[in-house]
Amino acid sequence: MKFNKKLIMLASAATLAFSAVSLPTYADDKPYTVTDGKYLDADTYKGFKLFRNWCARCHAKYGMGLDDGGLGADLLKSVKILTKEEFFATVENGKSGQIGSMPAWKANAKVMKDRELIYNYLLARSDGAIGNEKPKKAK
Ligand code: HEC
């Protein structure tokens, strides 16, 4: 009896210890790296450049769309509301809604190939890691 109790306690201690180490570390989960508030890692900077080339004319210079004088949705809000899959599906197939119409991007190989980097840039903006200003590429 005594032995069993000890065993159970040991087992639960082990379970606790195990769940403690297997907890995700959210800080390291960010798909972008920002240093000094304006330096982006090379991949995310590429995402910014793609955004600037293909999306900024409707979604405003740094993603805020209507909220910053643009024609399209505020994508800083969209990345918080939509799942990543929904975001990508909209980019691929376009969208006509209350705000207006966006063309489908599936025929644009550059956008399709690196849409994840565009998403990561918008995530960095949405998280407030990088401001409503021109980012720089980290050296
Ligand atoms: C010609 C203008 C235009 C361009 C260029 C454009 N968009 Fe859009 N986009 C829109 C409009 C307008 C909407 C809003 C549609 C609606 O809901 O009425 C929109 C909506 C979206 C949405 C859905 C937002 C939501 O909350 O549902 C995503 C995601 C999106 N755009 C991503 C992009 C990306 C990424 C690019 C660049 C590759 C891009 N857009 C380029 C006009 C544009």
**What percent strand?**
5-15%
Counting DSSP E segments of at least 2 residues, the number of strands comes to 5
Q: Average pLDDT across residues?
A: 89
Q: Main β-sheet: number of strands, strand sense, barrel status?
A: 3 strands, mixed
| CATH hierarchy class name | Mainly Alpha
Mind explaining what this structure looks like?
This protein is mainly alpha-helical and 139 residues long. It has a single domain, classed as Cytochrome Bc1 Complex, Chain D, domain 2, CATH 1.10.760. It has helices at residues 2-22, 42-54, 56-59, 75-81, 84-93, 109-113, 115-126; strands at 34-35, 39-40, 95-96, 101-102, 136-137. It has a 3-stranded mixed β-sheet. The relative contact order is 0.19. The model has no long low-confidence stretch (mean pLDDT 89).
In terms of topology, how is this protein built?
Layout: H1 2-22, E1 34-35, E2 39-40, H2 42-54, H3 56-59, H4 75-81, H5 84-93, E3 95-96, E4 101-102, H6 109-113, H7 115-126, E5 136-137
Parallel strand pairs: 2-5
Antiparallel strand pairs: 1-2, 3-4
Helix pairs in contact: 2-7, 4-7
The structure holds heme C (HEC).
Give the gist of this structure.
The chain is mostly helical and 139 residues long.
Keywords:
single chain, 139 residues, mainly alpha, Cytochrome Bc1 Complex, Chain D, domain 2, two-stranded antiparallel ribbon, 7 helices, 5 strands, binds heme C
